Amino acid sequence: xxxxxxxxxxxxxxxxxxxxxxxxxxxxxxxxxxxxxxxxxxxxxxxxxxxxxxxxxxxxxxxxxxxxxxxxxxxxxxxxxxxxxxxxxxxxxxxxxxxxxxxxxxxxxxxxxxxxxxxxxxxxxxxxxxxxxxxxxxxxxxxxxxxxxxxxxxxxxxxxxxxxxxxxxxxxxxxxxxxxxxxxxxxxxxxxxxxxxxxxxxxxxxxxxxxxxxxxxxxxxxxxxxxxxxxxxxxxxxxxxxxxxxxxxxxxxxxxxxxxxxxxxxxxxxxxxxxxxxxxxxxxxxxxxxxxxxxxxxxxxxxxxxxxxxxxxxxxxxxxxxxxxxxxxxxxxxxxxxxxxxxxxxxxxxxxxxxxxxxxxxxxxxxxxxxxxxxxxxxxxxxxxxxxxxxxxxxxxxxxxxxxxxxxxxxxxxxxxxxxxxxxxxxxxxxxxxxxxxxxxxxxxxxxxxxxxxxxxxxxxxxxxxxxxxxxxxxxxxxxxxxxxxxxxxxxxxxxxxxxxxxxxxxxxxxxxxxxxxxxxxxxxxxxxxxxxxxxxxxxxxxxxxxxxxxxxxxxxxxxxxxxxxxxxxxxxxxxxxxxxxxxxxxxxxxxxxxxxxxxxxxxxxxxxxxxxxxxxxxxxxxxxxxxxx
Amino acid sequence: xxxxxxxxxxxxxxxxxxxxxxxxxxxxxxxxxxxxxxxxxxxxxxxxxxxxxxxxxxxxxxxxxxxxxxxxxxxxxxxxxxxxxxxxxxxxxxxxxxxxxxxxxxxxxxxxxxxxxxxxxxxxxxxxxxxxxxxxxxxxxxxxxxxxxxxxxxxxxxxxxxxxxxxxxxxxxxxxxxxxxxxxxxxxxxxxxxxxxxxxxxxxxxxxxxxxxxxxxxxxxxxxxxxxxxxxxxxxxxxxxxxxxxxxxxxxxxxxxxxxxxxxxxxxxxxxxxxxxxxxxxxxxxxxxxxxxxxxxxxxxxxxxxxxxxxxxxxxxxxxxxxxxxxxxxxxxxxxxxxxxxxxxxxxxxxxxxxxxxxxxxxxxxxxxxxxxxxxxxxxxxxxxxxxxxxxxxxxxxxxxxxxxxxxxxxxxxxxxxxxxxxxxxxxxxxxxxxxxxxxxxxxxxxxxxxxxxxxxxxxxxxxxxxxxxxxxxxxxxxxxxxxxxxxxxxxxxxxxxxxxxxxxx
Lengths: 630, 506
Prior knowledge:
The complex is a heterodimer of chains A (630) and B (506). With 630 residues, chain A is mainly β. Chain A has one domain (2-626): Maltoporin, Chain A (Beta Barrel), CATH 2.40.170. Chain A contains five helices and 37 strands. Chain A has a 22-stranded antiparallel β-barrel. In chain A, strand 35 (576-588) and strand 36 (591-598) form a beta hairpin. The longest helix of chain A is centred in the first third of the chain and has 23 residues, at 2-24. The radius of gyration of chain A is 24 Å and the shape is globular. Chain B has 506 residues and is mainly beta. Among the domains of chain B are: 35-114, Sandwich (Immunoglobulin-like), CATH 2.60.40; 127-174 and 181-222, Thrombin, subunit H, CATH 2.40.10. In chain B, strands 38, 39, 40, 41 and 42 form a five-stranded antiparallel beta sheet that branches. A four-stranded mixed beta sheet of chain B has the order 5-2-1-8. Chain B has a four-stranded antiparallel beta sheet with strand order 4-3-6-7, with no helix packed on it. Chain B starts with a helix and ends in an 8-residue tail after the last strand. The chains are: A mainly beta (630), B mainly beta (506).
């Protein structure tokens, strides 16, 4: 195969030469600035002991996050511009947001914050709204199954969050106010080895929308009981300790919100109080020439949910925690050969009116090996993981990365991932037509990917094609007319293309950045021949930024084609099209004023794939100051 | 859809062609015989049969015969009901004769192929939680009305384009202190004027009289009076019954609530209020129902208070009017508990109600059966179950009845029995998406010419949830061409047309 590539290389090189020439023709490349683009990184600090260099990921650096903070937008607004990522907005400002990757459900996107895998006893995925953007240093979105690296849940990929500042970060304070009585107060403090961020946010969440149901006249409606208040806290501390360093990371969030129900079944009574927290302690020693790198870590993560609906019904209470310890070692054997190993032990416990009192331990062991053969890097890993009550799962991974010239990388990988059923999927009692299924086993997926990446200074282009075959897929199905429960059902196949391009140009004092990402997905359940619900065949996102003289104009457009809300494909969801724009003014380097407009097109019929209404046009005015002014 | 095609195109998978099904040609009228009820089939056992369902021969005095392509004459001798069956030697075609006059040529149909062809491609997109399908009107003007429970709406469901015809009506919301309440329409029944339908509004404790051509609500049908319980009924836990904010553990007086079943007879509309209060919510909170109520409204005098009857069996599901006997059939499932497993925990059965006096003349108790619907055919009461794939018959004149099991499912639901042409009973199975046929005379399951059920969906494991059937008024092939039955699958939210002409007729 390599020979074949070499034979065709002259032709490919000439195409690239033309491409690069056209890029250069737009002007001289400039160095990275505060408006740094999303870097599509292959070698990335993934918060794992041994980073897989062949696993494709998109790094969202501090500068991009800083820009988002200036506009007072949230983490999900940043993530869903990335190819393959789609964030499901479940109701507007300060409401729940869930990440989906590569067409997989929100349960198939692992979220790891400072090395703590965030888990939940429910099959709902992780609420990104509880991750404070103010406390973030860097994000990485891992594309595609990453079971060998991150264990259960990383079927579609993973979101890796780092709060530890890599360099001195100024204290800051921002206040934003806008439509829907939205108030955001966010701040961060940095002192010595300690970095802390906190936020308080609230919104009435009440808005007018247009109800659009098939075959019925449109109707103007009012979304009520959609208010939310939340507080967030994130802190990170590190200090040198003996031959290594000690890191302590903690964070949490609490949100009190109404639960407005579906458009066709509004609920004005239901309330939810949700809190989650995490704490991790780690001792790290970097690898030297003669000494292996070591890491000892321990973490605990908790989630509490209280749900109340009307006076006649029992309130629902859930208290969940997951703890774990991990030991990792890695070392170079030779200059071009590196190995690593990791052992993890953990325990989940849930006490809930939804599924009683349940505990389950888990354990995992991972070995990985990386060899560099000239321009080719070979990475192999094998993870074995066991959850109580589940079959032992082996997750191998093999990746190749070839860099024939310095601007180009070609990669291929294949690996297996899995997702263990949540506690509630297993043990939910039969109530109100829903029950758990104690016989459920983990769904597993083989995924292979081929990608090419061109990175020439201020122009980046990436193309990836992937195929995934998921077995023992967990679907919520009618067992009969009276009961729905999750079942392991058959096989789902998915083919996908992801592409992203980003161009930066400095035209005199004007800086221009253009980014576009696209996703094409085609998949079907073997049992039905139909695609599965919520899978949008086409996703597009564009971003344009113009900046000069301390003024920045931004525009983001998101599109997802129509999909369906049921397995039969008969409940269509309208295409999603949202255009956001912002104007940020920096009167001085340490302060900014921003006006952000969400849903500029004022589409009142915008809804999630779950058919929850979203607000029309909203405005947000934000002021942000940094340390020198404070 | 456009983008989906594009996505597939990129991967060279292509978009499949939509199958086009054409209706069988029309049948000419024949005096004394209903050609659309005759069949000429090869049975699964290899026998070639010529026969007719009940009503196929209305003039038995005529000299009917079937002449096979081999030239053999087979005289037809129909029963009193007009049904007959002949075994013919292997033959591809033959001609049905009256005396020496050829009436129609019949081509032999392979039963399995004919059953398959009878099922048209589904018309997808029936909204959220579609719950009933009713024809309003007669002949070419007949409109199929879809009751969309989850959308709080009704729609005229175009026989080819479905909801794309954009003929829908959002039912009014009811404003309560807790906020707006959608109608959650449950079942519908057409008036004989061919233009109006009555739809029960489960969450609003009322029914709506809807003028279909103009898609407008003409009137609300409400029971203003309350039911007095003597002695008062204890509730298992404190419940706020009327949304007033105060909970109570005892009920002495209540307004009929949560109507489901509805039937029309002449000027009268019969609405059955299920009395539903709450499903099982937790191990300590079992399902709660108040006694069901049957109310009779008069269309010509809607201002008059309806006459009501409190029903002895809980959770009435369906109401039908048996015009032959002039009686209202109210089918009550009893209370169903879902934990630890699906079980009827109170007596279910069928009540025969005198429509004039609103007195219950007879009650057929069916313990542990959870009846879902009932009809009278062949001097027996036929009842379907909500919790098992079973249909029972009870002789109206006394004596022991029996039961027909449709499949091996442990739990299955036959939501509504329907009268089909030729006196057959249609019994839809929810879990298997199969439409079974029952001959009420012979008590035979899937008799000739079907010899098996129609597959109206994939069945397990991802079944469509075959729920109810709407039979198009008129004679298939005589009054109209094309499908004569429309099946609603609730889970898949689609309507499947069925054309019996692919099995029956020349």
